Amino acid sequence: MLRIQYWLQTGRKLDLKHPKRFTEKLQLYKIKYRNLDMLRCTDKYEVRNYIKEKGMGEYLIPLIGIFDTVKEIDFNALPRQFVAKTTDGGGGNQILICKDKSKLWEADFCELLNRWMSMPQKSKPSGREWAYENHYPRRILIEQLIGGEEIADLPDYKFYCFDGKPHYCQLIQNRSIEETIDFYDMQWNHMPFYGLNPAVKPAVNPAVKPRQFEEMKQIAEKLSKDYPFVRVDLYSVNQSIFFGELTFYPASGYGHFTPDEWDFHLGELLHGIF
After folding, report:
1. Does 73 fall in a domain?
2. H or E element at residue 83
């Protein structure tokens, strides 16, 4: 399945015997690497407990509630702004961002969440990402809305970490206007490559280094030390840092780097899965 998908997504033959590309090694990561903590980290509620156990609960987005069914939610008790999501959603799916509850009908809210909850749960992800085979029950997670009206355009700092060391920060900006994706090294030097979506280009001008960049690097290092590779996603909002998620297989290993040579450069950093 991975050979077929890799060919369809990249136009290249997948080399699993002598992989050199980052995207090839991510396929082996799916096949061979097994760390049970990864299963916890792909559930949006269980990962909160994992982050607390790592001593970094202060960086979690404040929780409003966790619910097994839609009937358990008291719509009237919800704040004016919140984010509702299922604990197994991914890729921006099954997420409701409410900026003003007065404009949200309770019946529509419940219908949407009930539709999400009734969707069949796949026992095996289509991309064969082992870490998502966690078998946790689907629940509804409601968190505070960070960033207020600017939530759609919050800069997203994604740290690519290898063997417990962050090497590059992927910065995604302006999602609601004209999305840009750039990479920076750990000294905040703008890198000469971009990805993983070839349709999204880098910003015209490099971004200003975030004031809390050093603290974000330390967080990424602590959260990545147990894995050969993990992407640690963070937000910086009004001088506060918030944890986003841990991602083990960016773009399921089917992304594109421009120039292509950087697929090999990042591949040189990924060890410990053979």
Report:
1. yes
2. strand 82-86
For 104-115, letters b (16+ CB in 10 Å) and e give beeeebeeebee
Structural contact between residues 96 and 84, judged by C-beta atoms closer than 8 angstroms: yes
Radius of gyration of the chain from its Cα atoms, rounded to whole angstroms: 19
Last residue within a domain, chosen from 111, 146, 181: 146
The tens digit of pLDDT for each residue in 131-144 reads: 999 889 999 999 99
Element containing residue 7 per DSSP (H, E) = helix 2-10
Q: Within this chain, do residues 271 and 210 fall inside the same structural domain, yes or no?
A: yes
pLDDT in tens, 83-126: 999 999 877 789 999 999 999 999 999 999 999 999 987 767 78
Same domain, 177 and 91: no
pTM of the model: 0.94
User: Domain ends where: 146, 181, 215?
Assistant: 146
Domain-embedded: residue 105: yes
Same domain, yes or no: 71 and 27 = no
Report the candidate in 244, 65, 226 with the shortest Cα–Cα distance to residue 170: 244
| Contact indicator for 235, 244 with CB cutoff of 8 Å | yes
